[in-house]
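Lecture notes, unit on protein representations.

Consider one protein chain, 698 amino acids long.
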Amino acid sequence: MDNVTGSLLDTYLFETNSLLERLDELLIEAEQNKDLTEDEVNEIFRSMHTIKGSSAMLEFNSLMEIAHHIEDLFFYIRENGMSALSSDDKSELFNLMFKSVDRLREEIEKVENNEPLSSNIDSFIEEINSFLSKISGQGDGKSSGGNDSQAASSDGSAEGSSGTSAIPDMPKSSWCIRVYFEEGCGMENLRAFMLVTTLQENGYDFVYSPANIESDSSTAQEIIDNGFYLGFDNEESAKKAVVIVAGSNNIHSYELIENTVSDDSKKPSEDGKESASGQNSGAQAQAPRQTGQQHPSAHHAPVKQNLISVNLSKLDSLMALVGEIVITESMVTSSPDLKGLKLDNFMKSARQLRKLTDDLQDISMSLRMVSVSGVFQKMNRIVRDMKKTLNKDVRLTLVGEDTELDKSIVDSISDPIMHIVRNSMDHGIEESSEERIAAGKDPQGEIILSAVHTGNEVIISVQDDGVGIDTDAVLEKARRTNFLTKPEEEYSTKDILALLMEPGFSTNEEVTEYSGRGVGMDVVKKNIENIGGVVSMTSEKGKGSCTTLKIPLTLAIVDGMEISVGNSIFTVPISNIRQSFKVTSEDVIYDASGNEIIRCMDEFYPIVRLHNMYGIYEDVCTNIEDGILIWVEANEKSFCMFVDSLLGEQQVVVKPLPSYLNNFGIKDYGISGCTILGDGNISIILDIAAIHSAVVHS
């Protein structure tokens, strides 16, 4: 695939996925209102028209066909209004549309995975046509909207109500706007079509040339060479339309032309210059664009676009480069060659450089931050579908949708959140409204999905007001299935709920569409821990349950504490540290196996000597009184690490370890990555949870 085709495909996938996500949100809200507004009908029609045109250009026939027939359906609805549909028809329409969005999304996933598209979609197309036939009262399943030219005509396009048909050059209208798009932007014909759609939305009556832009990709070159024409019957409409044109995306230049002669003799001359009578007398601010011929001088479109989409790999490269800059800056200012020198001006410049690199680091990190709203909105669809399947009346309440996380983390939490929401729907909410009323609750169940930003992490919770978790039943099931690792009486409520996240454990006796396979919360826990997060559960029988995810803001930068063990330097994430303190030999006690234990805050915790764990025996502190203990915690597991000394807090750039090292299982021994310090030394970043599993738990 060449770069141009790859760029077009990326643009197509981004725009189409965005349209489908928007459609999901629109349909869910409309279904709750049990109707579609005129604006919503128009938006669905435009979305399908756009998907149809762009899919046809890239020869994705199944996508084009589905979108084309939905467009036909909504052309009929747009012409006749939703009032023409009965309540049953509306319900059927919503179900059909959700099904259509799913089918389109399935085909898009095949495109993304480079798989062949569906070759036979006749049965689904027939389902759309049958519904259209039903509501229109026509036997062939085709409405008056089944013809693209008719749709175009009603919208004021090439066959519009002005009565003038578009010709290859400038339309025979009193006033014309000639538009040029940014050089190299691609898909000029579809960009022209989107401009046409925008003007139609605003109620303008006009013609345009070339006419068949949405279905004929060859018109893109014609637009590049000659421009795209919009013809209006009067000056007032044309000047108002100029405002919309000027504010549209990817516009390089535009000009307003008074077409005083209506016959074919009044056309642009061979050198591309308009005669004096053919050009609007308004100021022409921009020099002609060079594309093989000179175009008339035209207005340069003002910079309107406030948002751009950027390939994530480019942001990854930027973050890596910024990380290298931060490390290099630290190496320069910490150079041992500078020790003992009085360099006031240098240090002043170094402080300014540090401030600038910190700002650059913050800005580059913020570029990767996206809100969780996209993930949260998808849960509306999950709840909607399960409500119908399980016949439960449940509402989903979203809180903190604008909370931001690193893009890679947002992508990683979608599946875990979906599973937790499904659990709440399937297990949490009572089976019937009568059961809830008998318990003194609102007949309609509620699931609250919330996100809140706290310091260096985001807390996401899924809370329901259902039956809660029967801890006695969970403990009994764990006993029967040999999941218990200690006597039953030693299990606290917290310990029992933790059993639900053990691999293979399920409280469901029957396998259903949504649960009972023993693959669930353990996968949620693993996925969240893979991104440095923590999962916890609370529940009160009869009142409901809550699952909480503590997620780091980003994986690229870590606030760490540098520690020394002999001549080695390690980094402990600050988020894992609870306290550091000195102890005496008398403070240390021993368990039955001879392992060292220390008392902290009326609790007893094991001591892990890092020099023993990693086999470091040169120049290390072995006397407990000479070193220092760091009380650490991860995934609600605590212990104390014995190290030589604390070197200080530092924000470090996380560097992944070479993949071949994974063959040695180093991650199982508490090594999650590394960082380069200011003096050029490498510091190993410790994974506290893995250390607990490797040493304490074993």
